[in-house]
Amino acid sequence: MKRLKSILLEDKFRLSGIVSILISALAFVISGYLPTETAFIFFIISYGISTIFCVAVMTKAFATYRWKMSKGKIEYTALLLVLWFTSAFSLNKSMNVFNNSSTWLSVYICLASLSIILCTLQEAFNLFFRHVLTFFLAASTILFIYFALYLIPLYPLSVLAVIVLGLSLHTFIPLFLSIVALAFLVRFYKKTPALKYTIAFGLFVPMLISVWFTIEWSQLNKNIKLAQNHNSLNESVLPEWVEIAVHLRKSPITEKYLKAELVYTTPLEDRSWFSGNISSSFSEPKKHDPLVMIASLWSGKPELTQNDRIKILKSIYDSRHLAEERLWSGDDLETQSVASNIKVYPEYRMAYTEKILSVRNNNERKLNTDQEAIYTFHLPEGSVVSSLSLWINGREEKARLTTKGKADSAYKTIVGVEVRDPSVVHWQEGNTVSVRVFPCTTKENRKFKIGITSPLKKEGGQLIYENTWFDGPTAKNAEESIQLDFSNPPKQFDTDLKRQKNGKYLADRQYKDKWTLRFDKTELSNQSFSFGANSYQLKEAIAVPTAFKPTDIYLDLNRSWSEQELKTLWPHINQQNVYVFKEKLIKLTAENLSSVYSDFYSLNFSLFPFYEISNPENALVISKSSGNEPNLRDLENSKFQENTSRFFAEPKIFHLYQLGEKSSPYLKTLKEFGVFDYNEGNLDQLINQLEKSQFKTFHDLDNALVIPNAEMKVKKIEGNVQTTAPDHLLRLFAYNDILKKAGASYFEKNEFQNDLLGTADEAFIVSPVSSMIVLESQQDYDRFGIEESKNSLKNASIQSSGAAPEPHEWMLIILCATVIIYFTHQAGHFNKLKLLWK
């Protein structure tokens, strides 16, 4: 350390170069947290420092060696090139030559730059450290050569453009760094011949990694080709991409393979010096990864189409939100604030939550600043969206309800062609909804509100409120304000929200996505809510143990099952007919148990073909899921979907047991449709139920729909009773009614939608057949045939409670109000007559 200090103090010029690099690197790091236009100022700082040091180096070399400046110190040249290298990456933020570096590449670049800097001080280090330094320098040389080769197409243009402030000289920096790095390696070898093995090892490791990655990439291409061939030969009922997704080995390489061109740059893509590639088919920012570039160059691009790769990413890498179709970019958007207004009704086991989100556009470019915000909201089980608002010109505009097709058509026309203000919310499978807001401009934050009606989950003697969370524009810096109110406050519950004098609870904090509230349950209220000619009332729903001894058991096997679980379960089911499905039903025996498991343990997921069950009344399906797999809509128009739809078209009673709490989107949707009796628990609980031949079942009654997680049912009663129950009873009844009826004809788009749209419109809820949309003007609604709901609850609100007045009741209210106003106005005249009479 003393020697290093002595070297730096003796050579102040070298010290000034290192200090300049540190300042330039700091400016680069700071610019990463700033908008592109502001970051350009920090490039000017880096560029200025590089230029000043460049002039200083050339002046010093000329003063010492005159026109033989090549004899100047290589250490000074190396420091200068690192400065220019940093400046080049600063410039890349504005003039996109390389997309954002992948994480490992960013680390590699930093190590390469540090290696060059330390090489200028190598005489201060001992032999061991020089071995380490030489290894990293040799490895860095491969990186510099890669960058130099990548930039070859730009060399001719850069030579011609060199007169423009010299900016194009940045193109040649990797080439110069390659030469300097090789010069250092030659010098090190001549001074210490023993370093030759370290040099060879340093050069060999990056190349070995590249070869290994390329071979793996090639093997992926080969496996996919074979899977496509097998799928064609077997005439699978599933789409080709599903069969590939099932067997595709999950790994970082596989993910990069699937994201090639969508996220990662590949050879022969159109590149511009002034702007990066934008893919509207996938929302993840573009990245540069040399391993992907090299592998796709030598082994070819992925054999799958972009559309199929997106479907696979949605299914096995939880990228469903990123794959949402976009009409406009949303790269510069962030969620600036979230306000949650929550009203909990413990005596009705439900809650209504309003979330008001403010979206900020950080794009400072002068052109094309409008962007589209897309959110995926994850709702608690059984929840339904019951309101939507968009602020237009500072005024809250409430949504109208219409068919999903009309809402989608209106939104795409207005956003894609006319570029004006709409917002739309669509139902999605797996307890999610998607919300789109346009335009989000740089002039002001965009604000919208979504309202969710949710049943409270009952667990033992407690009720659980689960927060609705979202994927969308980043909320990492968002501030959240929460207001919580109870219709009937619990005596005690744990929360970090502070109680106010008015009885409400408030909190201001950093946004937190997943959180819950627990409190003791209360008895269900016998109050009802009335609308139209009907009333709606809550009753307890108890899962009754029902005698059931299956004769046929179907195991839905995949990689989430362990072999030990299967072996533990086997003695308790081996007296029944036990089947698994792989292209056809296979009967399990003690002899083939291990071999069958080995065929299934590598499957990423499974889509059980319920239509293969020959005797549903006596069947039990046992499933376990990792949580990610295709949903029903992904399978549309496949033979699997057609067979499944045909099977569920006629009501059937059979049992499904879910091991663990994770459920796939496919089974979640079927569960919502109520097509099977559902039980869940761990393996011990399953074995216990098998031994007792008892499975818990909720019994549906006429005009009553069960909400299992809340252990209650909503009963529809003829007649109108004026009470104070919230209107959310009708909303939950209608939503569950639609889901139950939709399951049998989910993919039928005519009668199915027309029959159920009236139910959705009355309760004013988002469902498989209905969406909410906010448009800018009445003319827009008229143009797309979106009428205002008449005999409907309309948008829910925090104040929604009690029975809604009927049309004739509204007339009576208006008449009474008119009479009161009239006599109040006339009272003044009567008083004047009295005074005159006296």
From TrEMBL:
Entry-linked Pfam families: VIT
Membrane listed as a keyword: yes
Record domain VIT: where: 321-454
Annotated TM spans: 12-34, 40-62, 74-91, 103-121, 133-152, 158-185, 197-215
InterPro entries found in the cross-reference section: Sorted_by_XrtN, VIT
Keyword annotations of the record: Membrane, Transmembrane, Transmembrane helix
Protein known as: VIT domain-containing protein
Source organism per UniProt: Pedobacter steynii
